[in-house]
Amino acid sequence: MIDLKEFLKNNVLISDGAMGTYISSLTGRSAIACESLNIANPELVYRVHNEYVRSGSQMILTNTFCANSAALNLNFDKIGDIIKSGIGIARRGQLAKKPMLPLI
User: Fold this and answer.
1) Greatest Cα pair distance in the chain
2) Is residue 99 in some structural domain?
3) Is residue 90 within 8 Å of 49, Cβ to Cβ?
4) Which residue(s) pair with 60 in the sheet?
5) Tally of domains in the chain
6) Do residues 24 and 33 make contact, with C-beta atoms less than 8 angstroms apart?
7) 10-residue block means of pLDDT along the chain (104 residues)?
8) pLDDT number for residue 101
9) Does 34 reside within a domain?
10) How does DSSP assign 16-76, residue by residue?
11) Whole domain around residue 74: which residue ranges?
């Protein structure tokens, strides 16, 4: 894995874009609650991560921006499942590029 502090001393870090907006453009649906796709359609979420990596992203973010019980109206166990799945999907996308990208 890249040492982020060392990398930033001499480089500009390029991150991925707006996950929800991009998923919305692919599905034609609102970006609201796109975090639930970590469970319902993990391959779509992986596809987005992979496209960002192939386009030059040096860092990818998990699809967990609004993964909380207030935003998704779900219990803590379901939120935990969504977050764990989002981390796993991002890690899989991260492995598509060497050296490994920071995962945030």
Assistant:
1) 43
2) no
3) yes
4) 103
5) 1
6) no
7) 81 83 90 91 94 85 92 95 96 72 56
8) 56
9) yes
10) ---HHHHHHHHHSS-STTGGGHHHH-HHHHHHHHHHHHHTT-SBB--S-TT-SHHHH---H
11) 4-94
Please tell me the predicted confidence (pLDDT) of residue 36: 94
Report the C-alpha dihedral over residues 81, 27, 53, 5, rounded to 10 degrees: -50
CA dihedral sign of residues 81, 88, 39, 82: positive
> Residue 73: left (phi > 0), alpha (psi -120 to 50), or beta?
left
- Are the beta carbons of 11 and 102 closer than 8 angstroms? no
Helical packing angle, 42-54 and 76-94, nearest 10°: 40
Query: Is 101 inside any structural domain?
Result: no
Q: What is the pTM of this model?
A: 0.82
Q: Are 93 and 49 in contact (CB under 8 A)?
A: yes
Phi, psi of 96 (to 5 degrees): -70, -15
Within-domain flag for 74:
yes
